[in-house]
């Protein structure tokens, strides 16, 4: 067989730790969340937010993002979950794959808004801080599709074609077993990593505050996803000849453009703080020393004198 990208064996998709089964797909998602949290925390702190406040926000954003991702996937693939004899428990088995990024964006945005309201962080400040981190998280999560042997593209003869076993449920009927497929997971990973550098570069050149960075993210990701989605062969609902996720990608592009134009007009200047007025966090001044708790120096002297007096030798009478 010519050069190609092999799919990992079934022993790589999951492993057991006692009674628990750990899935590689879940580990990829978890790794993405951790990386995104670290990057966002660093960026948000540099913008004046309290160190560690991102943890209070993601306590809302991550769970609602996961719920949104699963709900979106199930609703856009109803034939996979709702049919005669279907096990409705399958709708919550996220470890078997099927988490839509567009759903996670909706759920995560709702969670982030709630978290920002509770912590006093500006929503747009958090959104701009998380923009490049989202791309890193998505690139890491896409690796999980490789472990799951899913979401591959149409057949290709390119040297980086992906090997997929012919017994795969998504394997197209009639194709020979040695057929290679476009590794769409890899294309999206590369596109997302490049997008990180695009956002960081633009931040050095123009003002990407007040929601403009997240707007660039939506546009960048939407453009890439609108193409990668067209070469995937997994089942999808079709509307007017276009896959559901392509419509969602178009929506992300339009939303990003609207946010960028509206925020550029409404907020042309710099962002005053990452916190809402009245809830700013003030870093402690390292030059300010704690209050001296030692007693007065004069007390030391008096105490010393008293001690000397007590310890002084006394004269005794030798009168006989």
Automatic annotation (TrEMBL):
| UniProt keyword Cell division present | no
Q: Which residues are listed as membrane-spanning? A: 20-41, 53-74, 94-116, 123-141, 185-202, 245-262
- Main localisation, per the record? membrane
**Keyword annotations:** Cell membrane, Glycosyltransferase, Lipoprotein, Membrane, Transferase, Transmembrane, Transmembrane helix
Q: What is its EC number?
A: 2.5.1.145
State where composition is biased (Acidic residues).
286-297
GO biological process terms on file: lipoprotein biosynthetic process
A GO molecular function annotation here is: phosphatidylglycerol-prolipoprotein diacylglyceryl transferase activity
Pathway as given in its UniProt record:
Protein modification; lipoprotein biosynthesis (diacylglyceryl transfer)
CC annotations in GO: plasma membrane
Residues at which a 1,2-diacyl-sn-glycero-3-phospho-(1'-sn-glycerol) binds: 142
Enzyme class label: transferase
Please name the PROSITE patterns in this protein's record.
LGT
Localization of this protein? Cell membrane
Instruction: Give me the ranges of the annotated region Disordered.
Output: 277-320
Matching entries from PANTHER family are given as: PHOSPHATIDYLGLYCEROL--PROLIPOPROTEIN DIACYLGLYCERYL TRANSFERASE, PROLIPOPROTEIN DIACYLGLYCERYL TRANSFERASE
Give the family, as the similarity comment puts it: Belongs to the Lgt family.
Name of this protein: Phosphatidylglycerol--prolipoprotein diacylglyceryl transferase
The organism that produces this protein has a lineage beginning with: Bacteria, Bacillati, Actinomycetota, Actinomycetes, Micrococcales
Q: Corresponding gene?
A: lgt
């Amino acid at each position: 067989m010519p050069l190609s990208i092999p799919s990992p064996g079934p022993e790589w998709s999951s492993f057991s730790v006692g009674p628990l089964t750990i899935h590689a797909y879940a580990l990829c998602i978890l790794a993405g969340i951790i990386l995104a949290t670290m990057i966002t925390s660093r960026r948000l702190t540099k913008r004046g937010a309290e160190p560690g406040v991102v943890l209070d926000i993601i306590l809302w954003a991550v769970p609602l993002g996961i719920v949104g991702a699963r709900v979106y996937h199930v609703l856009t693939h109803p034939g996979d979950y709702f049919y005669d004899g279907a096990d409705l428990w399958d709708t919550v088995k996220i470890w078997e794959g099927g988490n839509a990024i567009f759903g996670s964006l909706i759920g995560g945005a709702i969670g982030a808004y709630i978290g920002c309201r509770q912590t006093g962080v500006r929503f747009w400040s958090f959104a701009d801080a998380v923009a490049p981190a989202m791309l890193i998280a998505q690139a890491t999560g896409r690796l999980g599709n490789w472990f799951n042997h899913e979401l591959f593209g149409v057949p290709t003869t390119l040297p980086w074609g992906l090997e997929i076993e012919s017994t795969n449920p998504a394997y197209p009927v009639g194709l020979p077993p040695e057929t290679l497929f476009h590794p769409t997971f890899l294309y999206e990973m590369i596109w997302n990593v490049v997008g990180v550098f695009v956002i960081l570069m633009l931040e050095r050149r123009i003002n990407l505050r007040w929601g403009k960075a997240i707007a660039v993210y939506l546009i960048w990701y939407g453009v890439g996803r609108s193409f990668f989605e067209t070469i995937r062969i997994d089942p999808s609902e079709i509307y007017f000849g276009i896959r559901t996720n392509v419509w969602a990608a178009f929506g992300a592009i339009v939303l990003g453009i609207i946010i960028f134009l509206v925020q550029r007009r409404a907020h042309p200047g710099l962002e005053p703080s990452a916190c809402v007025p009245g809830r700013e966090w003030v870093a402690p001044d390292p030059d300010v020393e704690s209050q001296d708790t030692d007693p007065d120096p004069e007390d030391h002297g008096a105490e010393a004198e008293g001690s000397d007096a007590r310890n002084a030798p006394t004269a005794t009478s030798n009168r006989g």
